[in-house]
Amino acid sequence: MQHTLITPQSPGEQLAALAAGALDMASRQQTGNIGSVTIPTANGTKLIAGEMAGEQGIAPWVGDTTPPGIPSGIGVDSAAGMILVSWDGSLDGGVPADFDHISILVDGVEAGQLRVRGTATLGPYEADSVHQVTARAWDDAHAEDGSPAPNGSDPTKPVSVTVKSVVDASEIKEAQDKAQQAINQIAGVQQTAASASQAAADAGKAAASAGSTASQAKSIADGLSGSVGTAVSTANSAAASAKQASKDAGDAKQKAGQAVGSANTAVSQSAAASSKADAALSRGVELVRNPAFDPAWGDLDGFGLAMGTTGAPAKPPLPYATYGALTQRDYFSSWRFPLDKGRRYRFGFWCICDGKGREDLRIGWRYVNPSTHWDQAVTVAQEEASSWVWREAVVGTPDQWTDTDHSLSVWLNIAGYGAQATGWWITGLTVRDVTDSQAAKDQARQAQTTADGKNRIIAAAGEPAHAGLALGDLWMQLDKSSNVVGIQVWNGKGFVDYVLLAQEVLVAGSVGTICLADGAVVADKVTASEALLKKLLVRKIKADEIDVGMLTAAIVKSGLFSTPDGLVGFDQSGFWAKGKDGSYVFRASGDGVQAVGGFQTARSGDRIQLSQTLIQGSTTGGLQGIGDDPTHPYWLIWGDHNGASSRLLMGTSPQQPQFSATIGPQGSTAGVAANRVDIAGSESASISGDITVNAMPRYGVGRRVYQWMSNWSGVPVDGWVTEVANQMFVVPGPGEGRWYMCDMGARVAGNGEYGIRLEISTLGGRTAVRHALLSPPKNGGIDNFTASRMVFMKAGTYVVRIQTIKFGDVSIDMNADWAFADPYTDPHVFSRYVFLTEC
User: In this predicted structure, what is the pLDDT of residue 504?
Assistant: First the structure.
């Protein structure tokens, strides 16, 4: 066969071969399906890339069966209902190269992972519960089919931890007091029941006594020899007493039953009160784990703020001594706050700002449903926080929130970018569930409103919550300086403008009324300064006679204004300015801003100017940056159109643009005119299409990083011949490594075979790349033989060795007409070669 790099004889053949060589080399640069590549790695393992690596496309540490060491430096603690597990990043025997993560198990079940040293927050768990914590280390090994096959270490010895309560002592004391009150109430009811039972027993005794008396009376009557009338009277009286005693006993029994029922009710109410107290205690805890942003505690809430005691304009209020610094736009809590949908939470914090042109501080919610939302709960302007100030608000969870884990975060924000998004410090951050206590406050407030029989007046910057509003409630709208800028009234569905209607207005301190009517102000006395009265004519106000400085408090509203010459003014179409011919030279309206003739951002100094006439050679306009001397611009952008072609030019000189772009009937072109063109910031540059240098075509073959060529010819000696030994080769970063195309060739004559072998090894002697060429027997013929292969090499320093060998009757031919040729090497003709080209 004939190789495309062989130098032809005639000039025509030379051009044809050059084009064929360009096509061949270009095809080598294209990405194609190369199947799979297997690269040996440490300890007898390998890395597979390509189809054999499974769905991931790359599988490292294939064949590894050695587990990592047992994790060491494990610490276990508890706080706020959570289990805290810390790791110092060490393993028994050191951390191997294929390490992936440690798995943390609570009672034998995986509860979290750590890939680097740090602390994992697990839970929440039930207070006072006891758990066993262990940890295992895992590597990143894979099976032959590319699927994960990690090796795990033995678990650490179990560490017992008791979960600490999330309720503080004051809340427990309050719940105990409430429970004691309920017990006391029960005791009082039981005492009442005991008294009623005693009364019933006394009544029973009375009934028995009455019955005995009646029996005695009857006996006396039966055996009485005296007056029968007296005996009958005594018996009747005893019977009546017995009947009354029986009735009293029945009443006492009924009261005893009622007392027992009251006792049962009190017990039930006590249980309900205890249940509510437990719920309140579990919900009303502090959710922020490091409210003071104390660096000694660490970033337990995962905001990522810098914490300490320096930087703020003043010391924080007691009892706080530390704070967090906000130096960017957004911060989000990374740990899962135990939040519930449909609940209300109180945000509160101390903050301070250095007042150097900072934007507002905002704190609230961040959640995803399905796109990202940011709901602010509290906003503080820099002028409000020249010293440490306390701000708080009660807000509910967003209605759109899906209530899934990690979908709702506490959000800290400065509403700006760059220098505006810094200069704030916070401390004492609190987030608590106040749904139950807030509901009680709302009920009390509503009851107070009902008792007073009055509407409320609410002063706030933001619109008040609609829950609990009554018809006629007023909202006084405040600005950032707490000034009233408007009044709205609640009409049962929303807030609308508050309109005051009155027959008369009585002004405090006056004895009469002031009438405000359409077109008239009627009052017993109207006071105005003499200077102002001199400027005002009673029946007519002339524009030329008004001193505008005297009307600083007024707002002039009009649909039309014009200067006397009619060249500047505004009307319903917008603001405008006209030339002397009456055509518009400037116009600002709802359709935008139009400036005819030219535009500049300032009258002097550094400025940007847009003009049709100042740029030489411009027919449709241009944009330029200039100084005080318009004849020497800083930079220019201009263009023109001649009916068939459009042109855009950029540069620092109107006579010679550095950049140009043209599109016309012949297609599009782009040009760069400079003595030197630098391309920086990348280790490679890609060019699509033909390349010409001084009107002659040139073809790139990638970035050749290594080459060996030989123009020797003759019969090689028997056995291996070392052509190159211990030559250094470096694969640069950044990144894991580089892909290379390895090409080799030889022009062989004779009946035998000839081979070339390339070996690239690490400094430690491990083979990284081995590529070989072996020519087949040719029965006495002569031909060129080549071999190409794509290889991957990790970043590092390597040693290159090239060896050749012959088998049988073989010689190396060096016919200049048919030998290999390369326009990028010197000499240009050679019989053998080895090239490495970065892909």
Answer: 60
514 and 493 Cβ atoms separated by less than 8 Å: no
Task: Round to whole Å and give the CA distance between 309 and 439.
Answer: 38
d(CA 785, CA 833): 11
Distance CA 49, CA 38 (A): 6
Q: How far is CA 384 from CA 258, 320, 350, 461, 479, in A?
A: 62, 20, 12, 13, 11
> Could you give the 3-state DSSP secondary structure of residue 546?
coil
Q: Which residues pair with 107 in a beta bridge?
A: none
Question: Considering only CA atoms, which of 367, 434, 433 is closest in space to residue 400?
Answer: 367
Q: For the chain, how big is the Rg over CA atoms in Å?
A: 48
In the numeric block, which tokens belong to residue 646? Answer: 């459009």
**Residue 614 CA: distances (Å) to CA of 288, 383, 631, 634, 656:** 63, 46, 9, 13, 16
CB atoms near residue 105 (< 10 Å): 19
Q: Maximum CA pair distance of the chain? A: 176
- DSSP secondary structure of 201-221: HHHHHHHHHHHHHHHHHHHHH
State residue 281's pLDDT score. Answer: 43
- Tell me how far CA of residue 361 lies from CA of 300, 413, 746, in angstroms: 22, 6, 73
C-beta of residue 747 within 8 angstroms of C-beta of residue 818: yes
Residue ranges in the chain modelled with pLDDT below 70: 1-36, 50-57, 166-284, 370, 405-406, 437-454, 501-559, 597, 611-621, 654-655, 680-702
Q: Could you tell me whether strands 607-611 and 598-600 are parallel, antiparallel, or unpaired per DSSP bridges?
A: antiparallel
Instruction: Determine the 3-state secondary structure of 301 from DSSP.
Output: coil
Contact 578, 566 (CB under 8 A): yes
Q: How far apart are CA 61 and CA 68, in angstroms?
A: 13
